[in-house]
Amino acid sequence: MFNLTIATSKEIIFEGDAQILNVYTLNGQIGVLPNHSPFVDIIRPCEMRFTDEKGEVHTMAVSGGWLFVWTKEVTVFVNSSEYDYEIDLTKAEEERSIAEQQLESADELDVIQMAHTRATLEKAINRIRVASNKTRN
């Protein structure tokens, strides 16, 4: 086991012992087990899964952040996160549609608006993927 803390700038989402953490970083998919070699990486918007001390698997949509791994402690700082059961699929699909429409009229967006719209689209697609995976499992 290792101590896992998952937090945003506003709250601690999870804090407790975990058996494994799976997350996508800029370097690819990472599986963290107890006594893992220490490292730091950037988390991509992705589906993040971890198994707690009781063997229960938890699945979340995260919109990017930082992963800090020490031998017996892992800290995940994310911009935002939602457990798969919290995701409103209808709302996520609406957000995706709006972002896609905005990108179609990209000539009206400045660089900052374009980046924000692309991030919104990526977040919506990730939320849809995570929520859809839950309905299949």
For this entry, give a set of tags.
single chain; 137 residues; alpha+beta; ATP Synthase, domain 1; 2 domains; five-stranded mixed beta barrel; 2 helices; 7 strands; 31% helix
Return the CATH architecture of the largest domain: Sandwich
Count of the domains: 2
β-strand number: 7
CATH class of the largest domain equals Mainly Beta
- DSSP helical segment count: 2
Largest sheet composition:
5 strands, mixed, barrel
What's the helix and strand layout?
Blueprint: E1 2-7, E2 12-25, E3 28-32, E4 39-52, E5 57-69, E6 73-78, E7 81-83, H1 89-104, H2 111-136
Parallel strand pairs: 1-6
Antiparallel strand pairs: 1-2, 2-3, 2-4, 4-5, 5-6, 5-7
Brief summary:
This protein has helices at 89-104, 111-136; strands at residues 2-7, 12-25, 28-32, 39-52, 57-69, 73-78, 81-83. It is α+β, with helices and mostly antiparallel strands.
Q: What can you tell me about this protein's structure?
A:
The structure is a single chain. This protein is an alpha+beta fold. The chain has 2 domains: 83 residues, Sandwich (ATP Synthase, domain 1), CATH 2.60.15.10; 50 residues. The chain contains 2 helices and 7 strands; from the N terminus they run βββββββαα. β1 and β2 form a beta hairpin. α1 packs antiparallel against α2.
